[in-house]
């Protein structure tokens, strides 16, 4: 086992492909916005010289504790607890970055610990927060959200066709007793769904959707991409690993929007000037059969890499600050800004006089 894997039993997905995509320079400044257990970060650090810098971020306090303990003696490494959506707020990024990595979704160690509440395969408290010290848990949200809001989240973020049926069951069950355990929720969902082909657990899409909502994952992704784009130096690389279609669609469209001129429109006879600021590096990269056999989690991983070209159309809305208008903390069912399409709501739009 090499040093990149030595800090834990965790195997980073698409490890070699990420390092190839970042093209790490010995004197560069790199940010890993999802440290996790540090597999990719260790690989970057091994390629840095004495003048290089590695900036580490994570929402998860446990991940931050591991990073601080392991790299406390390395002057090249700085660690910050928080979402990568806020990376431009960190003064350490002010001079620009030569590379940014986001490894999205939940990490294998988080799934393996029942107490974190991410997995329906292990009974534990229904939490699902990447940062257990902040915000409401999945159990708290399910206890207070309306049936409509629950169904909307399941449809938007899990593309769950039976979202309304599941939401009705959740509301009916919580009227009798609170839903506090992962197994209880998983069994409830399975009990109201028609028998499937058995390839995936009936609760898979619902657990994904609730986790995405609780952690504002897609809103944070939009803001993080904007912040990375603002902080990358010309020639710097952005590498993003996604694990489901909603994430990958956002990343793909973000890169395309900064790399390609918008299509001509008859309604706009004068085409505005466009200067590309990103260049897509190759096509989407997926794990090969050997990696999937060694690490089944890699099956759904998609890596996209882009290179910063220079100053062009100003769209990020970041003038040296990390907050982005792309990700307001609305507290509602959809934290998205609407720039990237997600499945429509299962409910028609209600007018002011309609019942909620």
TrEMBL record:
Keywords assigned by UniProt, alphabetized: Cytoplasm, Methyltransferase, rRNA processing, S-adenosyl-L-methionine, Transferase
Alphabetized SUPFAM superfamilies for the sequence: Putative methyltransferase TM0872, insert domain, S-adenosyl-L-methionine-dependent methyltransferases
InterPro entries: RsmH, SAM-dep_MeTrfase_MraW_recog, SAM-dependent_MTases_sf
EC number: 2.1.1.199
Catalysed reaction, written as an equation: cytidine(1402) in 16S rRNA + S-adenosyl-L-methionine = N(4)-methylcytidine(1402) in 16S rRNA + S-adenosyl-L-homocysteine + H(+)
Subcellular location per the Swiss-Prot or TrEMBL entry: Cytoplasm
Main localization category: cytoplasm
Gene Ontology process terms (BP): rRNA base methylation
Gene Ontology annotations for the cellular component aspect, listed alphabetically: cytoplasm
Gene Ontology molecular function: rRNA (cytosine-N4-)-methyltransferase activity
UniProt keyword Repeat present: no
Region (Disordered): 314-356
Binding sites annotated in the UniProt record for S-adenosyl-L-methionine: 38-40, 58, 84, 103, 110
General function of this protein: Specifically methylates the N4 position of cytidine in position 1402 (C1402) of 16S rRNA.
PANTHER family tied to this protein: 12S RRNA N4-METHYLCYTIDINE METHYLTRANSFERASE, S-ADENOSYL-METHYLTRANSFERASE MRAW
Family (UniProt): Belongs to the methyltransferase superfamily. RsmH family.
Protein name in UniProt: Ribosomal RNA small subunit methyltransferase H
Organism: Vulcaniibacterium thermophilum
Gene: rsmH
